[in-house]
Design brief:
This is CRISPR-associated RAMP protein Csx10. The protein has helices at 34-47, 54-58, 104-115, 206-217, 243-265, 351-364; strands at residues 4-10, 25-26, 62-63, 67-69, 77-78, 83-86, 100-102, 135-137, 141-144, 148-151, 155-163, 170-181, 184-187, 190-193, 195-201, 230-235, 277-283, 289-291, 294-296, 301-303, 306-308, 312-314, 317-320, 323-324, 329-330, 334-337, 342-347, 377-379. The protein is of the alpha+beta class and 390 residues long.
C-alpha cells in the first residue's frame, strides 16, 4: 500500500474557502482540503483540452488534506481533542508555555478500572504541574521535529470594491473584504516560510499531473486576482512507526498508567494489568459518518458482518460545505466529526488476526466522500503516549 507526499509553498496569500457568514466577508480555512486539490487538477485539464480524461484519471484516487507546517518535509497533524494545556500559560514548553499532555491513556485506565469496581478517592481531573492552575483543551496543529511545536498561521485581510460590469467603475455599496493565509509567519520577530504538506493515495502518475496543475494555475479562490500562487513538489517523509509497534507501545504505556492508578486504590481483587488489547483511532481530517443512513459522530469498525463499538470517544461536530465548479452549485452541506476526534476500541482477538483490518482502515479511511480527503485516520498516534507535560 504505497502513497505519495506533496508539499506546497505559498508565494502569495491563499484563500482556501470556508463558511460565508456574511456576503461581504470572505473568510478562509487554515488547511487545504482534498477537494480543492482535485478541483485544481480538473481545472488544469479542462484548460488544456483534456476534459474527457478527468473521470478515469481521478478514479480510485484519494486526495488527502494538506495542513500547515514550518518544514517542507514534516507533516503536521490536528491536535487531539484529548490534549490539555495550562489555561494561564498555554502551549508546548518549546513554545514557552507550561506544556501540553494527552489525557487519553489515563482516562482509559481510570474508566476500565471503575468498570471493574475500583473506588478512587478523588475525581478524574488534572492541574498544571508548573503553576497548579486549571487545564483546558487546546486546538490547532502540531509537528514533531526535535520537540513538539504548535503551528500557527497568520491572516491577511484586504478590502475591495466590486466593479460594475457595465460602467467599469466602482459599484455603490458593494465593498467586501477578503481574508487569506499569509505566505510567511513571524517566529521570534523573524520571517519564516509556511508549507502545506499532505498525501495522495495511492502512489500514481497522477501526482505529476497534480504538481503541474498547482504550479501552473495555483490553488484556492481568487487566483486571477493575485491569490493562490504556490510552488509544489514531491517530498519524502519518514512518517510514523509500523502499525503493530504503535499498538504495542500504546498498550505498554496503558499498562504503566494502569499500575500507577492501581497503587492508589490498593485492592487485591482488581487485575494487575489490562486483560485485552486497546487501540485508538484519531481523525486526521473531518469524517462524514452515518449509522444505517442516520448521520452520527460515533465511529464503528465493521469486521466480517459485525461491528466494533468504541468504549469511549472524544469528538465534536464540524460544519462541512463546499462549491462544485462543474455543477456551478453548492455541494450538499452536512455535519461531520471534527479533525482531532479520538475513538478508543478494545479487542480480545489476536492482534495478528486484526492487524490487516486496521492497516486497511488507515489506508482507505472511513466514512463518506473519502476521495475528497474526508475520513483520514491514524491509529495509536504517538501523541497519546505523552502523559506528562511536554
Amino acid at each position: 500500500m504505497s502513497l505519495s507526499y506533496i508539499s506546497l509553498k505559498p508565494e502569495t496569500p491563499l484563500r482556501l474557502g470556508g463558511v460565508k457568514y456574511k456576503s461581504q466577508y470572505l473568510a478562509t480555512e487554515e488547511f487545504i482540503s482534498g477537494a480543492i486539490v482535485r478541483g485544481t487538477l480538473a481545472e488544469y485539464m479542462i484548460l488544456n483540452g483534456r476534459k474527457s480524461e478527468i473521470k478515469n484519471l481521478v478514479k480510485n484516487i484519494r486526495f488527502g488534506f494538506l495542513y500547515p507546517s514550518y518544514h517542507p518535509d514534516i507533516l503536521s497533524y490536528p491536535i487531539p481533542l484529548t490534549a490539555l494545556t495550562c489555561k494561564s500559560d498555554f502551549g508546548f514548553k518549546s513554545n514557552k508555555g507550561h506544556g501540553v499532555f494527552d489525557q487519553l491513556i489515563p482516562l482509559i485506565a481510570f474508566k476500565e478500572l471503575e468498570k471493574q469496581g475500583a473506588k478512587f478517592p478523588v475525581a478524574f481531573t488534572f492541574k498544571c504541574k508548573e503553576c497548579m492552575g486549571r487545564m483546558e483543551n487546546i486546538n490547532g496543529y502540531y509537528i514533531k521535529d526535535e520537540n513538539y511545536k504548535i503551528i500557527r498561521t497568520e491572516r491577511y485581510t484586504q478590502t475591495k470594491t466590486a466593479i460594475n460590469r457595465i460602467r467599469k467603475s466602482a459599484e455603490e455599496k458593494m465593498i467586501y473584504s477578503v481574508t487569506a493565509i499569509k505566505p510567511k509567519v513571524y517566529i521570534e520577530n523573524k520571517p519564516h516560510d509556511i508549507f502545506f504538506n499532505g498525501k495522495i493515495y495511492p502512489e500514481s502518475e497522477i501526482v505529476d499531473e497534480v504538481l503541474k496543475a498547482l504550479n501552473s494555475i495555483g490553488i484556492g479562490s481568487h487566483t486571477t486576482r493575485g491569490y493562490g500562487k504556490v510552488s509544489a513538489r514531491r517530498i519524502s517523509v519518514k512518517e510514523h512507526e509500523p502499525l503493530i509497534k504503535r499498538i504495542q507501545s500504546f498498550n505498554e504505556k496503558l499498562s504503566e498508567v494502569w499500575s500507577e492508578l492501581l497503587s492508589i486504590v490498593k485492592s487485591d481483587s482488581l487485575p494487575k494489568e489490562p486483560d485485552a488489547t486497546y487501540f485508538s483511532v484519531d481523525l486526521i481530517s473531518p469524517a462524514i459518518l452515518d449509522d444505517n443512513g442516520v448521520p452520527t459522530l460515533k465511529l464503528t469498525i465493521p469486521v466480517k458482518g459485525d461491528k466494533i463499538e468504541p468504549i469511549l470517544f472524544s469528538t465534536k461536530p464540524v460544519y462541512l460545505s463546499g462549491w462544485s465548479t462543474s455543477w456551478t452549485l453548492p455541494k450538499p452541506s452536512t455535519y461531520g466529526a471534527a479533525p482531532g476526534s479520538t475513538y478508543v476500541f478494545k479487542i480480545n482477538k489476536s492482534l495478528d488476526d486484526f492487524t490487516p483490518v486496521l492497516e486497511r482502515l488507515e489506508f482507505e479511511g472511513i466514512g463518506k466522500r473519502r476521495d475528497e480527503g474526508y475520513g483520514e485516520v491514524k491509529i495509536c498516534s504517538a501523541f497519546h503516549m505523552e502523559v506528562n507535560q511536554i
